[in-house]
From TrEMBL:
One of its GO terms (molecular function) is metal ion binding. Residues 184-298 form the Fe2OG dioxygenase domain. Belongs to the iron/ascorbate-dependent oxidoreductase family. Keywords: Dioxygenase, Iron, Metal-binding, Oxidoreductase. InterPro entries: DIOX_N, IPNS-like_FE2OG_OXY, IPNS-like_sf, Oxoglu/Fe-dep_dioxygenase_dom. The keyword DNA-binding does not apply. It comes from Armillaria gallica. PANTHER family: FE2OG DIOXYGENASE DOMAIN-CONTAINING PROTEIN, OXIDOREDUCTASE, 2OG-FE II OXYGENASE FAMILY PROTEIN. The lineage of its organism: Eukaryota, Fungi, Dikarya, Basidiomycota, Agaricomycotina. This is Thymine dioxygenase. Signal peptide: none annotated.
């Protein structure tokens, strides 16, 4: 019987074949492997996850088309000034990722000192009353809206399967997590990291995305071939290892909300985007990089308590029940000030 788990030689992150879960032949084995990776590393690569390669190639292609538009055209779908409405286009320098920081002065200061060398476009489900989508006017980039929505809903189906696997890993009802994620209150982000001097990144004069953890339930990341994603080694805090792009894979990581939900049995590991380690030299420039993260969160205004089995009389709960919207809105606001 073939192994369902291999390992990325750079980062040591497990690569799990999700096919035997999807076809039902080795569901528990796959579920255990994913949960074990979330507990030990906080990250896992999934292959045979259910998104066709042509659909992944297509959304990367649409990202390149969108970001190639003139700035004045992209700004026809502007991200609102409110940090809690994550939709539309954010030009370079608007967003600044800072880990667990809710001090407006510090965020503005950090943005000026080391701006994030990226731009992004965000969308979600249509008819979202809390965060309505902000699209380009009709006729400017025909097909872009439809491609984003199609990829969004394809990712949602994969998300539900991942949560079913996690539930089996925790030995709870298979629908335990999916019942809290029925509304698809998720965010699709299309990211473009433009080329900058490697020296500026290494010397802290600019950043691509600084060290941070994600704050939702899980993140499903499609990355191109350029590289640059680094994940902290859980056994050596402060040491980062490259999460190598693996063709056809999704990089899945647990967020802070899921860590809290699991009574800290799951890791929400900090990570960043830098210059790939094979790049060096005073005149070296980073490659352009495109990535498509899909951020998953629980239904709005839902009270979340600890996963059964992660706490007991001898292992007390670390956290009180919390309203999902109250938590997530505060974390969203940290990136935009």
């Amino acid at each position: 019987m073939s192994s369902i788990v291999n390992y990325d030689h750079e980062s040591g992150i497990p690569i799990v074949d999700f096919g035997p879960f999807r076809d039902g032949t080795r569901k528990q084995e796959v579920a255990d492997a994913i949960l074990r990776s979330f507990k030990e590393v906080g990250f896992v690569y999934l292959v045979n996850h259910g998104i066709p390669q042509e659909k992944m190639d297509s959304i990367i292609g649409w990202a390149k088309k969108f970001f190639a538009l003139p700035m004045e055209t992209k700004m026809l779908a502007p991200h609102p000034s409110s940090g809690t409405h994550h939709r539309g286009y954010s030009p370079p320098g608007l967003e600044k990722i800072i880990q667990h920081e809710y001090n407006p002065d510090k965020i503005v200061e950090s943005r000026k000192k080391t701006p994030d060398a990226k731009e992004n476009f965000e969308s979600g489900k249509e008819n979202d009353k809390v965060m309505p989508n902000i699209w380009l006017p009709d006729g400017i980039l025909p097909g872009f809206k439809e491609a984003c929505l199609d990829y969004f809903w394809t990712c949602y189906e994969v998300e539900l399967n991942i949560f079913r696997a996690l539930a089996l890993g925790f030995r709870v009802n298979e629908d335990y997590f999916t019942e809290y994620h029925t509304a698809a209150d998720n965010q699709l982000r299309i990211l473009h990291y433009f080329s900058v001097p490697v020296k500026d990144v290494e010397e802290g004069l600019t950043s691509r995305i600084g060290t941070h953890s994600d704050f939702g339930s899980i993140t499903m990341l499609l990355q191109d071939h350029a590289g640059g994603l680094e994940v902290e080694d859980p056994h050596n805090p402060g040491e980062f290892k490259a999460a190598t792009p693996i063709p056809g894979s999704l990089v899945i990581n647990a967020g802070d909300f899921l860590m809290r939900w699991s009574n800290d049995t799951i890791r929400s590991t900090i990570h960043r985007v830098r210059a790939p380690k094979h790049m060096h030299g005073s005149d070296c420039m980073t490659q352009e990089r495109y990535s498509i993260p899909y951020f998953c969160g629980p239904n709005q205004s839902t009270i979340i308590d600890g996963v059964p089995g992660t706490w007991s009389e001898t292992v007390p709960k670390k956290y009180e029940p919390i309203d999902s919207t109250e938590y997530l809105m505060k974390r969203l606001a940290m990136s935009y000030m």
